[in-house]
Design goal:
alpha+beta; Alpha-Beta Plaits; three-stranded mixed beta sheet; about 30% strand
């Protein structure tokens, strides 16, 4: 018995949705706030992401020296981690070769910590 011949192709729309979901999760924002564009780079994908990032409020940081660490690190550290996560997970989930992931942060969404009663 021979295996069926053919191929599976992941469309650009499906790739965009996967990358959007990964970036939204990594940056802690709603997927509707993330914009993704894909382009070809010598047969591999170049991914460009534009999104806000969720951050802790400045009031919270001023009163707590460890707030930045607990929130996942600085904005730059979190953006770099998001780049790696998007690249690795998108390659794993789609089988696509990813040349580069560029993240452009276009805003900050303030996370207000709720008080414990």
């Amino acid at each position: 018995m021979s295996a069926g011949r053919g191929r599976t192709q992941v469309t650009a729309r499906a790739l965009t949705r996967v990358v959007t979901a990964l970036a939204a999760t990594a940056l802690d924002v709603a997927p509707s706030r993330v914009s993704v564009s894909l382009s070809d780079h010598d047969g591999a994908l170049a991914v460009s992401i534009s999104s806000p990032i969720r951050v802790v409020s400045l009031n919270q940081i001023g009163g707590d020296d460890n707030a930045v660490l607990r929130s996942g690190g600085t904005v730059l550290e979190r953006a770099e981690r998001a780049q790696s996560v998007v690249r690795e997970q998108a390659q794993y989930l789609t089988g696509s070769s990813i040349h580069s992931v560029t993240i452009r942060l276009n805003g900050a969404e303030i996370r207000h910590q709720e008080r414990v009663k």
